[in-house]
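Phosphoglucomutase
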Amino acid sequence: MKAVIMAGGFGTRMQPLTCNIPKPMVPLMNRPIMLHIVELLKKHGITDLVMLLYHQPSVIKNFFRDGADFGVRITYVTPLEDMGTAGAVKYAEKYLDERFLIISGDLLTDFNIQKVIDFHENNKALATITLTSVKDPLQFGVVITDKDRRITQFLEKPGWGEVISDTINTGIYVLEPEVFKMIPEGENFDFSQDLFPLLLKKKAALFGYPVKGYWRDIGNTDSYREAHHDILKGKVNVKIDEPKKDLVGKDLRIGTDVRLGEGTLMEGTVVVGDNSQVKAGAQIKDSVIGRNCTIEPGVKLTRCVIWDNVFIKKGAKINDCVLCNNVSVGQATVMEEGVVVADDTSIGEDSYLKRDVKVWPRKVIEAGSTVTDNLIWGERWKKSLFEGEMIKGLSNIELTPEFVAKLGCAYGTSLPKGSHVLVGRDSTLSSRMLKRSFLGGILSAGVNVRDIRMISLPILRYKLRTFGEVGGVHFRQSLEDPAITEIVFLDADGLDFSSSMGKNVERIFYKENFRRAHYQEPGGITELPQVVDFYREGFFRGLDQQLIRGAASKVVIDFNHSVAGQILPQILNDLGVEVIGLNTYLDESRGSKSADEKPHSLQQLSKIVVTLEAQAGFWLDPTAEEVALVDETGKVYPPEELLPLLVALMLKSGARGTFAVPVSAPSVIEQIAAENGCAVRRTKSAERSMIETAISPEVIMAGTMSGRFAFPKFQAAFDGMFTIAKTIELSAAARLPLSKVLGEVRRSTFLQGKVPCVWEKKGGIMRKMSEDSLDKEASFIDGIKVSFGEDWVLVLPDQYQPVVHVVAEGKDPKAAHRLLDEYMQKVEKWKKELTL
């Protein structure tokens, strides 16, 4: 049997380790990662190998040659261009005329491959995917199988709301040569995204086989360090070239011609490569040292990975770091956990490298330096830039002008040269400062900017619905923390950035693969002074103006010092609405109110509405997307009541169509919609998912559980300003005070809770929830929702916070509380089980 080793990746996520060598050749215990894979295959009797290369193929060929030195026979195949995983294997089709195995060249595993092959053969499978359970399934493809191990569903790199299992695709496959008939010639074709879904669609013999054992995708520098820790702890056995030294109570692996000074203290497992010297007084614990290295007296190394030809001078203290080839470390230098120093770098004495700093190759760090940011390739202040559609960070600390300028370069590079983007901001000084830096980056990539300056986000979205721009960006202060700036990215239709768009910008940002326009061809900046008038015209067209004017309503609106306070009062006055505005003035230095001020603001608003005998009061968040409602009696409507209220108002006004609501919304919405011959479409909670649903022609309203509403007749985007005007119109059409609208609707008890949960356990909890729901009526739109007649409970992992949400609804309070308590206890129990 032959095996194909996939060894063509660029290893971008592992930079700077992979700046000078391909990812499969990165040393693991002083041997290339791929050599461990070769040893694993050889252990199971597979010695006929096909290596698929692409990036720096000569490095791999020069090391392995024909494979004779390693007891295998190697055939090399190098596609001329990036063909995708399956497309690259198609390129090697002529060498694969019998059953074969696919495995990545950058994995660390001790799986029993023979068991997978036997399972494949016994089940007469066309393709078998090796599966395993992991703590964080978000970075991998989740695979669902039935009781016979046939694959029934794929979730490629899901969000937490989609996770219903922690069983993932390991990238190890057993395939029959017949699969080549389904891989097109000369096209980019992927196993996970193209071939396996196609086999599933054709109902081919596609199986998934779960394997016990150790498995790690060494995809980034953190995973690389953790792989070494796992080996040193004995979690996985790999071949180590250096022979074991016979010392009681110590696990030392010492190469040839190694010199150890007297009094050297070594603890745990220590590997020292050939011709290295560790001088007297050095202290080394659980570390791997390469060949031709020198460790001087007083050096303390803990959980470190040291490559070849490294010189560490007296008194240096290095904890859980990676030093690549030809690095010199000055006397008394300190490196914190997670530091990675790439090849040919010189670090001066008394330097201090802070946690997780990455230093790219061939750098000189002067003596006495304190390094807090990555050198050259840009600071990486968190795991990924994007949280959904936005990038956020502390103003002038994490989001600095230089960082944002690079971000503008990356964003501009992702767009066609000569295209136009819209850019706006809120009223804060930080947003103005960072936006100006961002504009310089966009212009440098040859992209033009239409600057609409200080503007509300719904207006920017509305303008993007027209032709002319390929995207938009809005800078604003965070409602949760005034010290944080949020940068919201929108596509050409005014929708939130998709995950693929965000990943494309991230990839350009981290690689610094910026497009630099010729000095005569940078982008230009123009203004759109009439954009508010354009928005106002569409606003009026979306409403029954005569009905609103006839009602002569009086409303109180808290504008939260937002830009909307300069726009909406005049629009409503033109419609004959009397507006009492609160907090309408702009304060650039203070910004808008924070989230913790909202309850107090709503109490004040309630009192003012009652005192002034207004028909309604509205709290508008600073983004002008979210609203809270107070009726004429002073009652503040929580989101679980506001959404049904607006649905009921729409129905009483005679509107007919489909309502888009999240899976967590109360079921009373279905009840009142069905009574009026209308439909409800449940969606994921992600706002982009809701808006994509709202674009459908039959949808007349989309509403979230956070007070955000979209009326597609005006625009399929959340717009708090239009929501206020529409509510006034609907109230007039219903000829009812707001407090009476839900009077005839049967009420239920709606409860929400959340359980703290570390990221590593979320996948396991959803697997257990999935298993617990096997015999129940369950849906998997977003999280796992289980129905018990008219009662239901939803378990949903949070996308960005270390918590799991539990939502329950019951006909009576006792049923709702029982469901909520029962499932919160289950989640707690599952957490404990996953710890054992």
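thats it. Residues 813-835 form the longest helix (23 residues). Residues 377-383 have pLDDT under 50 and may be disordered. bye
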